[in-house]
Design brief:
With 693 residues, this protein is α+β, with helices and mostly antiparallel strands. It contains 15 helices and 25 strands.
């Protein structure tokens, strides 16, 4: 009895459909039942595994064959690639958490999703030992771990080992429990889209010591024709009268524009290498004996030899249909299956002339009768393009991979997740940003209005945008031994605002001293109480200051004198001193309020700061009758305050401190700003702010 082998090459769904046409012809010619061994690679393995598991259906009547082939066609129309792509981003989160827990993440990979689709739609949860004894199926994969060929069949796994002598020997692992979806997934794991498939001893159903974990990828990397499978069988003393080789490889594309980017150059180099390997394999096995018969997709069937074949212009475009795993249209499906059928019939007639009488002359089988498949050019009866021309042009567009145009599908629920995310990112988020921008503009207008109406806030916002100590010019300071007598009846202070800017201060480090400076600015609005020009003098006292204080030159129109009283206070460490700032207001008009600005700066080296400084305080006191007093503190970002307290107590400390009743208080949420205000502060009272860093 003659022994026939069948090799099904790789090439994605294009190969699957082309081989389906070849299988249909073999069935119609009565040759399919004589096949004893099948070797398959990549896209060929998708059909081969289903063929072996449903052997009786494929060899049955037309209805049984159509039912079995319909499962393959439905899987091709399922758009498995994009179903996987849509789920990959959703798997990143479980994969991330799996790294933090003992839970394995093997089920959250593209390969695992692919295997689940194989299980649900083609093979079920079936293992290698459930494959039929005849025909024997040999699924080829590339072993990434050792760079050799691996063969899966109903006995288990055969792994090619490279010997030092140069010969290739195979070791056997009795992994009969390997599930067929995983094995087919390894054989069709197209590099670049699918990572290598991890197969463990548990996957094969053997002991841990019998098989170390190894990784497998697309069998087409090593042999895209499946011929090495029969070479391995021949080394096992198996002989075949004829080996039919379904070759779904496409013709090599010559580029007219060689301007390729980095990725394009890598892909092009891979295409050249794959094409060269394909040529060498064919040359190798063409010369190996007459038992190899190639059924090649690149063959063109002449209409004179087979009037039922597709028109040659259509056949030429079928060869260039993409090698992908996305959804194929009914036109593409019919064209590929019919071309496989007609080429197989042509090859059989050429190699078995005596058996041509038994070959049916019916048109090539169409899995989808409603598809568009004109078999030959019709007589032109109008200026419109002929149906064959229309179909050929449509198939030419099929050579391009469709990525973004088919990425979303209303029939697949993740599409709605991405649609919701797109609405969130490109509609809702921009709308919220716009609303936030409008609110920020409104708030800025409100703040600017308030700032223009409140001199304190105007000064604070001015400090935020500029360095107050830039372009500093020191005023001269006169030293004297005793304080100047102050006439409290000269003026009334309407408002007195004091701002302390501590932002440039840096506490001492291990190897460095304190840096920066304390900036103080005070603004007073003064009303003259005496109309006599000789009595229009204002002297402001600043007790408890440090020895080194710098006053900025005044731009006021009124003459000013800064005096240092060289009498240190007792009990303070470091000692504190009294400074006086005197103004001659003789040229001022008694009817209008007078605004006075005073700026001072104390270097950090004069403040006596400590590395472990954890608290601070400042007391405000006034000699004159004052209607409203405000004090502000700006803290550095590196040392914000944690809490603060406002208290008041008599200047002679005759009573304990009590909580201050402030007109308002401002507590910054990040510890950067303190503000408080007192109405009619008493001259004999100290109003103090205490803070913790």
């Amino acid at each position: 009895m003659a022994k026939f082998g069948l090799a099904l090459s790789g090439g994605g769904f294009r190969a699957t459909l082309f081989h389906l046409g070849v299988v249909r012809f073999l069935r119609d010619a009565g040759l399919l039942c004589e096949i004893t061994d099948i070797a398959s690679v990549s896209g060929g393995s998708i059909l081969a595994a289903h063929l072996a598991l449903n052997w009786d259906r494929y060899n049955g009547d037309d209805e049984a064959f159509a039912g079995a082939a319909g499962e393959i066609v439905n899987f091709v129309r399922f758009d498995v690639r994009n179903h996987i792509v849509r789920r990959l981003p959703l798997l990143y989160l479980p994969r991330f958490f799996s790294k933090l827990t003992p839970w394995a993440s093997r089920g959250a990979t593209a390969n695992a999703v692919f295997e689940r689709y194989y299980t649900a739609q083609l093979y079920g949860d079936r293992c290698l030992y459930e494959l039929p004894e005849s025909p024997r199926l040999h699924i080829l994969a590339t072993n990434v771990s050792n760079g050799g060929l691996s063969v899966f069949n109903r006995d288990g796994l055969y792994i090619q080992q490279r010997a030092e002598s140069g010969s290739n020997e195979f070791t056997f692992v009795p992994g009969k429990l390997a599930c067929i979806p995983k094995v087919v997934g390894a054989s069709s794991a197209f590099p670049g889209f699918f990572p290598p498939v991890e197969i463990t001893a548990a996957d094969l159903g053997v002991r841990e010591g019998q098989f170390p974990t190894q990784w497998f990828t697309d069998g087409g990397v090593y042999d895209n024709l499946g011929l090495r499978g029969f070479s391995w069988l021949k080394h096992q003393a198996l002989k075949f009268d004829r080996i039919l080789v379904g070759d779904a490889g496409k013709p090599f594309q010559v580029l007219t524009n060689a301007a390729l980017g980095l990725i394009g150059q890598s892909v092009r180099a891979s295409d050249i290498l794959s094409d060269r390997v394909w040529q060498l394999e064919r040359e190798n096995f063409f010369g190996a004996g007459s038992e190899f018969v190639f059924i090649s997709m690149t063959d063109i069937v002449d209409l004179q030899d087979d009037p039922t074949a597709l028109h040659p212009v259509v056949q030429a475009e079928v060869q260039s249909i993409r090698t992908d795993l996305d959804r194929f249209s009914s036109t593409e499906i019919n064209a590929l299956v019919m071309h496989g059928y007609e080429v197989a019939r042509k090859v059989y007639r050429n190699h078995v002339p005596a058996g041509t009488e038994s070959i049916p002359d019916l048109p090539p089988w169409m899995p989808l009768p409603d598809g568009e498949t004109p078999r030959q050019a019709v007589e032109r009866t109008s200026p419109l393009a002929a149906p064959a021309t229309v179909l050929a042009r449509r198939l030419r567009r099929s050579g391009n991979r469709r990525v973004f145009s088919t990425l979303l599908d209303p029939r697949d629920w993740p599409s709605y997740v991405y649609l919701a995310l797109a609405l969130l990112l490109f509609v809702y988020a921009p709308y919220q940003i716009y609303q936030l921008h409008r609110r920020a503009q409104t708030q800025a207008l409100v703040i600017n209005s308030i700032t223009r109406g409140d001199p304190d806030l105007h000064m604070i916002f001015g400090l935020m945008d500029t360095d107050p100590t830039s372009h500093w010019v020191d005023d001269s300071i006169v030293e004297k031994p005793a304080p100047t007598p102050v006439d409290l009846s000269t003026v009334e202070i309407l408002t007195r605002s004091r701002i302390f800017d501590l932002r440039s201060l840096r506490l001492p480090g291990i190897l460095t001293g304190p840096r920066g400076s304390l900036y103080m600015r005070e603004r007073l609005t003064v009303k003259l109480l005496k109309t006599e020009q000789a009595n229009r003098h204002l002297t402001l006292r600043y007790p408890n200051l440090f020895r080194e204080v710098h006053f900025r030159t005044s731009s006021s129109p009124f003459p000013r004198t800064v005096t240092f009283v060289n009498v240190p206070s007792k009990g303070d460490n470091p000692p504190r001193y009294l400074y006086e700032v005197g103004y001659d207001l003789g040229s001022a008009s008694p009817a209008e309020p007078i605004t006075i600005d005073i700026e001072a700066m104390i270097p950090a080296t004069a403040l006596g700061l400590k590395r472990s400084q954890a608290q601070g305080r400042h007391g405000f006191q006034t000699d004159f009758k004052t209607d409203l007093a405000s004090v502000w503190f700006l803290f550095p970002a590196a040392h914000p305050y944690r809490s603060y307290q406002l208290v008041r107590y008599p200047m002679d400390r005759s009573a304990p401190p009590e909580t201050m009743e402030s007109r308002f208080t401002i507590d910054h949420p990040y510890g950067r700003l303190i503000g408080w205000s007192v109405v009619n502060p008493q001259p004999d009272t100290i109003y103090e702010c205490r803070w913790l860093l």
